Amino acid sequence: MIRTNGAAAPLTRPDGTPIRILAVDDESSLTELLSMAMRYEGWLVSTAASGGQAVKVARETRPDAIVLDMMLPDFDGLEVMRRIRAEDPNVPVIFLTAKDSVEDRIGGLTAGGDDYVTKPFSLEEVIARLRALLRRSGAALARNDSTLVVGDLTLDEDSHEVRRGDVEIQLTATEFELLRYLMRNPRRVLSKAQILDRVWNYDFGGQANVVELYISYLRKKIDANRPPMIHTLRGAGYVLRPAAA
Questions:
Q1: pTM, 2 dp
Q2: Domain 147-240 falls in which CATH fold?
């Protein structure tokens, strides 16, 4: 089934040009189906069947997001991501994997990927996750301009700049969306289930440990060597509060 949600508004890049996606898989029938579904969305799609080819095409096309198979004939998806991000550090990546163990399913996330889809999957699911990821990364126009402020922490939803005091903090797309959710709900305890639903925009199969993982990433960047703002309430969830004076 190729058609995605007909009510979804078209996404474009901030300059109005089409979204660019790179689909990487050594199964040509799969990349053809993915390409068809993405082109139906109005996106420009490039494909690659190996890791080496993926790195070359990414360098040439500068994609806004990558759909990347974990198992490729020359080297694995994690190595492809590492090489591409050496030149384009912020490009979002969705991994495709045939593996079904908990460890393998979140392996790509712990290595820095933004999402994963387990084969077999529906094309609707891939498109929906891509749309959510493109919005989170700022590659697509889908949000209002505003600045969030909690204590000495500021987040510009338009430019995606984050500062703690006078120090600029670099975040990945998923880290940014998690922090934005926390900052939109200051002093409010948010459960892992609430965070999964809002930040990842789908049922993550109950893998709440991915929330713990990304909270730890945020703490290292937001709270490192500073009075802490992100707090854990055991058994309840997480809360963002202005740092104590």
A1: 0.56
A2: Arc Repressor Mutant, subunit A (1.10.10)
Nearest residue to 230 via CA among 170, 156, 164 = 164
**Whole-Å CA distances, 57 to 45, 110, 111:** 11, 25, 22
Is the CB of residue 119 less than 8 Å from the CB of residue 98?
yes
Of 11, 7, 3, 1, nearest to 139 by C-alpha is: 11
Question: What sign has the CA pseudo-torsion 189, 148, 217, 192?
Answer: positive
Q: Which CATH class is domain 20-137?
A: alpha beta
Each of the 245 residues of the chain gets a pLDDT tens digit; together they read 233 333 355 677 766 678 899 999 999 999 999 998 898 888 999 999 999 999 999 999 999 999 999 889 999 888 999 999 999 888 999 988 876 655 655 665 666 778 888 888 888 889 888 988 887 777 665 444 468 888 889 998 878 899 998 899 999 988 999 999 898 888 889 988 888 878 876 554 556 688 999 999 999 999 988 999 999 998 899 999 988 65
Q: 């990304």: which residue's tokens?
A: 214
Sequence spans of domains, the chain: 20-137, 147-240
